[in-house]
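Lab notebook, bench 4. The sequencing result for the construct came back, and we need a structural model before the next group meeting so we can plan mutations. Quick request posted to the team channel:

Model the 3D structure of this chain.
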Amino acid sequence: MPPIRTSRTRKPPPDGFEDIEDTLLEYENKMKDAQNAPHEGKKKQETLWPIFQISHQRTLPIHLRALLRQIRHIQAPLRLAP
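Done. Here's the predicted structure in token form:
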């Protein structure tokens, strides 16, 4: 059984989270609107399209930040001890 996460065991957000926090909140609001949108007369797939689209848009800044961090780590110069 996985451990229970409480407010005391929660990790702090990673560095740079403040930069994308507003964007993530904006996508969260868009997601709520898409989930609560009327779906009368639409197929099930048609109602899910906006949700998938917003989900992909929301993950993009996170993946780009992780990719840039990996690139910087690879390009960092080696420091040799004297």
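The mean pLDDT is 84.
Will bring this to the meeting.
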